[in-house]
Each structure stands twice: as structure tokens, then as C-alpha cells.
Amino acid sequence: MNSPFSAASLAAACDNDMSDNLCLTNAQLVLPDRVMTGSLTIEAGVITELTEGPDGPDGAVDCGGDYVLPGLVELHTDNVERHIEPRPDVDWPHLPALIAHDAELASTGITTVFDAMRVGSIHSGKGRYIDYGRKLADEMLAARAAGMFKISHFLHLRAEICSETLLDELATFGPDDRVGIVSLMDHTPGQRQFRDLTALKTYVSKKRGMSDADFAEHVANLLDLQKRYGAKHEVGAVAEAGRLGAVLASHDDTTAEHVATSHRNGVGFAEFPTTVEAAQACRDHGIAVMMGAPNLIRGGSHSGNVAAEDLARADLLDIVSSDYVPSALLLSAFRLADLWSDLPRAIATVTSAPSKAAGLTDRGALSTGLRGDVLRVRQIGDTPLLRGVWSRGAKVA
């Protein structure tokens, strides 16, 4: 896959100040194919040396045998929306929300994030969604340019195809925005994520306080929107992703037919397929499978869909996303390490695999010449304890 990012745009996404020099020694370095006792050196924000052995130079940080691994790469998180709307219909000031979101992710070991922002609004019926994506993206890009962030931020546009204004909203974005990912969303009741209407009713009733009558009206409106806009908006969103130079992702594929359509659309990775059938079809078509860390930690999907652990056991899991719990990402990798008895493979699901899927070639592994985004982690029982986070060699948590 060709990267949608030029060298200049990648440099512009680096927000924190670089450290002049950092050496972590006496560490268990989690390399792509093995774990090695050694030292890692970062100079001017880039990994310059990896050496084997317990001893390092004077002034090095003695990690005392802790793991050192690449910074985590997050492709799909709802966390920024949680910060700008901490409770239903509570609009929090965006810049403080973005800064708090950035700091929270840094504190969990995420050093690269694609901030998911919904495009496609619903102005009719119950469960209205207002247009916020362009304004929030402007604020995020301005904060990034001003060096306000600890970690690296990119744009991920969640294209809600069953909405009234999707194509108009997508048209406000251009190549200069460096949109990294466009994902195709269809949350129509009775299919994909919400095949079980009971699960959907529980979700929206708690989030929006809907009565039975409100819920029935909401479902009828969404079905009508899909009938009127779904097909047209899907075609349009695929074209817009191409115009923007973004990686295209599918969302909640459920059947082999869904995946076949995703393949024809040029989808690079599949977010949260809901069945083994869909995950297997993704594998057959060469589409990377991404599942949610909360699903893995909880032992199942909150919507009643396929368990991430089942896909991991069937060798149908490539990428993990924190989804709605940032701290779950690191924990999920160590859970997979236990499941697979393979720490490097597990760490790859949250580092090199998402980097590759997003077209980023300058991060995601402990390798000379790559960004100095690294974590220091001590394992306590089956729980990873984060003891240090560096972004381009600068300590951010």
C-alpha cells in the first residue's frame, strides 16, 4: 500500500519537542521477531542504535529489566468525542477537551492517534446529530501546528452514509488537511453492529434517554435515511476518500457479501467485523482485521457480536484498537501475548500492524531510523504497568 502521507506531512504531525539524546539500558527490548536484553538510543527524535547486553553508557536510564517497546498506534478511538461531549447534550470547549484527550492518551502509552470524528449529520427525527467534524478538525490541526500536543495526531473521518449531509460535509475537507483514514459507517438498525435491536435499544435509551415511542421513531427514521441516502453516500464517500488520499476502512462487516463490497471499494482494513464469516472473508481478500480492545478484555462484544478472543484463536486478528477505553490498548496486547505465547506478535497488533494499515512507514517498531516513540513497561502478574512514555525521545508520561 502506498502511504497517503508525504515526508513533509509526517514531519508536520510531530507535535512535541524532540529530545537531544536518550538511552534506555538493561531493558527487555521487544523487537519485531524476538525479545532481546539490551540498550536503545534515540538522538534527535530518531532511534539510532540498538545494542545487545545488559550494560549501557554512562548517563543511560537503567530500566531494571523492564520491557521497552514501540509506542502504541491507535487507528479508531471515540475518546475525543467523549471529551467534547462528556454527557449527552453537554458541549465542552473543544481546545481544552483536545488537550485533555491528548494527555490521557499519552498516559496510556498511545503515541500516535487517528482521532475519529463523525461526518454526516442527522437533523430530522429523534437522535439528532449535529455537524461538528470540520470545526473540530480545524481546532485539532491548529493545536497540532502550535505544538500543543504531547503525541502525534492525524484525522480519521467516520463517514456516516445513512445521514442527510455526508457528502456536503466531506466536501469541506481537502488534501491539505492530510486526512489519514475515512471509514464507512452504516449504523442502520437490524444489521451489522446492531442486528439485535434489543442491544441498540439499551444503548440509545441509556445514552439519550429515549422512551419506547422515541426509540420506535428513531429506528424508523434511520431505516428511511438508509433507503434514501445509503447507496449514494457509500459511492460518494469512497470517491471522497480517494480525493483526500486517505486509507479507506470498512466498519462492522457482517457477511461475506459485505466484505466483497469492501474489497471492491478498495478497503485497506476492516474495523470490528461482527462475525467469524466476515473476518474469514477479510483474510481471504487480504483485508486486515481490527478488533476492539474492550471486547478482548471483557471476553465478548457489548453488542452481542463475535468475541475478539475467538478471532485471535482462529488467527483472524491483525490489529487492536482501544475503541472507547484508551487504557485497554496496552492491556490487550499483553493478554494476546499470553494467548499466543508470543509477545512480539502481540505487540505488533498495536504498533507495526496499525502503522502499516494506515500507511505510516516511520514508526511502529524498535528499529534504527524510525521515530523514537517508545514505552517502558513492567509486567506485574498479568497486568502491564506503564513506567515511561517517550514521543520522539521526549518524555510525555
TrEMBL record:
It comes from the Bacteria. This is Phosphonate metabolism protein PhnM. Transmembrane segments: none annotated. NCBIfam families: phosphono_phnM, PRK15446.1-5, PRK15446.2-6. Coiled coil: none annotated.
